[in-house]
Amino acid sequence: MNQNSLKQALAAFPSAQGKTLVELSEAHPVLIVFLRHGGCPFCRQVLAQLQTYSEEIAERNLQLAIVHMMDQEQANKLLARYQLQNVETFSDPDRKLYELFQVKRGSLAETIGPAIWWSGFKTTVLSGYLPGIPGKDIQQLGAALVFDKGKVVASYFSENSADLPDWDLLLACEIPSH
What we know:
178 residues; alpha/beta; Glutaredoxin; five-stranded mixed sheet; 5 strands; 40% helix; antioxidant activity; Thioredoxin_domain
């Protein structure tokens, strides 16, 4: 999809706060985080990491935007737990934004298979990120992208449900000045 087509498609998806990703990216580079389903313990771990990195995200002059598949009320409660209630949020239960940015769905082996079990044990039992009620699409994987002036300038696409972004690498990307 070319840049103009992407911009046009994104115009149909305002955030809960009323802005589109293109509008946000024209003002500041945007760190877009695509969450898995709301009950996913790895999703909760990502939110905790974003809370930890919030100061660095702000220092890099990045606007944080979170795309999720939950209803907005459920998302607001989850985000408030991690002090992320003031970020731009996009409820996408039909996964249209996921598709536009080519965030893949994993196979059952990539999402709940035996290779994920040890990571799941460490995340839930050892780190305390307890799962919630499984969401709409348990096979949806996550991603994180830096989006600037309508273009992706850096990205990280999870290979499985336990594969979390390398925030240091992603936040170190070169962003043209606004």
